[in-house]
Design a protein that fits this description.
Length: 228
C-alpha cells in the first residue's frame, strides 16, 4: 500500500471494522464506536483521500479501497473481522467480501448499491451535474479535481454484478431506511443475491446509523447475537 490509513479504535475484543460513505470519515460512526466497544475492538477507518487519510497515487476506485482494506488488516494482523459499511463503505465491503471471503466474519451492508442505477434519480441527477462541472474545472483547480474524484465514485461506480454476491460466505445483514436514497427494490436485490442474507428496513432515510442510531444499533446487535 502506498499510504497509511488513519483510524480510530475503541475496545480490545473481536475486530469490528466500520467503513464510512463518500466524502465522510470515521467520525460518522461516533454512535457505533461507543456502543459496540465493550464487546468489540471497534475500528473506524478513514478511506483513502477521506478524512485524515492521504490520497496517495493509486487509483481512486471502490476496487482500490477494498485492496486498501486488505492491506490495512494485514498490517494490523487482523485475520478476519466483522465489517459494517455505509453507502460507499457498503460498496467497498461488498467488493472486499467477494474477493476475500475468508477475511469477513460477518457483514453489515447499510445503504449500498451495485451500480449507479440503484440510486433514486432525484438524488443521482444533481450528482451527475456536479460531476460534469467539477470535471470541466479539474485541470485548473485542485478543489475541483478532488470534487470530480469524489463525485466520480458515485457516477461511474460501483460496478458489481448481482451474481458476484453469491461469493459472499459470511452471515450478512442488509439494512436501510424506508426513505433511503437507494431504491428499495435495489436493496432487496442485494439481499436476495447474498446467500442467507437478512433484510431489515427501518424508519428513516439514508443516514439511519447517524440519525436513528438507537434503532440501528439494536438491529445490528440483534443480528450479531445470532451469529456469535
Amino acid at each position: 500500500m502506498d499510504i497509511t490509513l488513519y483510524y480510530q479504535e475503541k475496545g480490545n475484543k473481536e475486530p469490528f471494522i466500520l467503513l464510512h460513505g463518500n466524502g465522510e470519515d470515521g467520525t460518522y460512526f461516533k454512535n457505533q464506536i461507543d456502543y459496540f466497544s465493550d464487546r468489540y475492538r471497534v475500528i473506524a477507518l478513514d478511506t483513502r483521500g477521506h478524512g485524515k487519510s492521504p490520497r496517495g497515487t493509486a487509483p481512486f476506485t471502490i476496487e482500490q479501497f477494498s485492496r486498501d482494506l486488505y492491506d490495512f488488516m494485514e498490517s494490523l494482523e487482523i485475520s478476519n473481522a466483522v465489517i459494517l459499511g455505509f453507502s460507499d463503505g457498503a460498496n467497498i465491503a461488498m467488493k472486499f467480501a467477494i474477493k476475500y471471503p475468508g477475511k469477513v466474519k460477518a457483514l453489515i451492508l447499510n445503504g449500498g448499491n451495485l451500480n449507479p442505477e440503484g440510486v433514486k434519480r432525484t438524488t443521482q441527477l444533481p450528482i451527475e451535474i456536479g460531476y460534469k462541472i467539477a470535471k470541466r474545472f479539474a485541470s485548473k483547480s485542485p478543489e475541483a479535481k478532488k470534487n470530480a474524484e469524489m463525485l466520480g465514485l458515485m457516477v461511474n461506480e460501483p460496478n458489481i454484478k448481482p451474481g458476484e454476491l453469491a461469493k459472499i460466505t459470511a452471515p450478512t445483514l442488509v439494512i436501510c431506511g424506508r426513505n433511503d436514497m437507494i431504491r428499495e427494490s435495489h436493496t432487496k436485490e442485494i439481499a436476495e443475491n447474498i446467500p442467507g442474507a437478512k433484510l431489515s428496513i427501518i424508519k428513516g432515510n439514508h443516514f439511519i446509523a447517524n440519525k436513528r442510531y438507537i434503532t440501528f444499533n439494536k438491529e445490528v446487535e440483534g443480528f450479531l447475537k445470532t451469529i456469535s
